[in-house]
Amino acid sequence: MADRTGDESPVAQGCFVTFEGGEGAGKTTQIARLKARLAALGIEAEVTREPGGSPAAEVIRKLLLEGKVRELGPRMEASMFAAARADHMDVTIRPALERGAWVLCDRFADSTRVYQGEAGVDTGFLDRLEKIATAGRRPDLTVLVDVPAEVGLARVATRSEGAGGPDRFETDAIATQERRRRLFLELAAAQPERFVVVDGTADAETVEAGIWKAVRARLLAGDGPVLAADTGEAS
Ligand code: T5A
Question: How many structural domains does the chain have?
């Protein structure tokens, strides 16, 4: 596993991989598949999600997804996503990485950039929130699972029928969902060293293969973990 300390010694820290995309893109499905692929190499991966991923952040998740914060405005929503993220980093993500596990996180700070950015929260405010919430720890790789909004929403609609209906963000208009998609693609284009974009409309096996190819190329050398001596500071 890559060294994130900047030291010469090959002290292993886990890799931090985030998954982003619109509603129903297939992130959760692909995280489970990547976890299994890593396990086959003997690499432990902790799966987590946002909002949520720690006991306190799960409390905030419930408030956000029920829509109780919506009437307080997008700045308040952005602040609550960030508060949840700060706790998630402290309680779940950082400790896992420090013990050498990989962290596979379903959504992270890019979702705030896209969802709350699209809702009108200015970039300066989002920058400050991200700095506080993450203390500058960025993902080593971000997988953007890209699907047209109608494809993702159709998948989610099938699932919602038996699960108490759609959440606060799934009910937004299709034009809003498409703007979010474009913003995700813009983020990916601006940071190609961190992002890989995969076509989420393909079948799950094909999507999985595309993600695995990127993980191998960016984070693994051949069949073995990348050591600090091989890579220096990983991006
Ligand atoms: N949010 C989140 C913000 O506004 N700001 C933030 O900062 C953060 C962190 C979270 C909501 O919060 C918002 C964004 C979200 O709206 P959530 O319930 O966690 O809500 O929702 P999502 O992250 O969108 O997760 P979903 O479960 O809805 O989508 P996934 O995980 O992308 O999709 P998945 O894998 O569950 O698959 C959905 C369905 O499609 C099928 C699956 O079997 C499943 O039924 N599927 C496929 N079908 C065909 N082909 C494939 N390739 C398929 N892959 C999966």
Answer: 1
**With the CA atoms of 219, 103, 111 and 56 taken in that order, what torsion angle do they form, in degrees rounded to the nearest 10?**
-170
30: in domain: yes
Domain-embedded: residue 42: yes
pTM: 0.91
Residue 40 CA to residue 34 CA, distance in Å, equals 10
Ranges of H-type helices in the chain:
27-40, 55-66, 74-88, 94-98, 109-111, 117-118, 123-134, 149-160, 174-190, 204-219, 228-231
CA of 112 to the centre of ligand 1 (A): 15
Element (H, E) at 224: strand 224-225
Kindly state whether residue 40 falls inside one of the protein's structural domains.
Answer: yes
Strand pairing class (45-49; 141-146): unpaired
Encode pLDDT of 8-58 as tens digits.
544 478 999 999 999 999 999 999 999 999 999 999 999 999 999 999 999
Residue 138, domain member (yes or no): yes
Structural domain boundaries enclosing 166: 16-219
Pocket of ligand 1 (CB under 6 A): 21, 23-29, 49-51, 65, 81, 106-107, 111-112, 115-116, 155-156, 159, 167, 169, 200, 203-204, 207
Look up residue 124 and give its two tokens.
């300066």
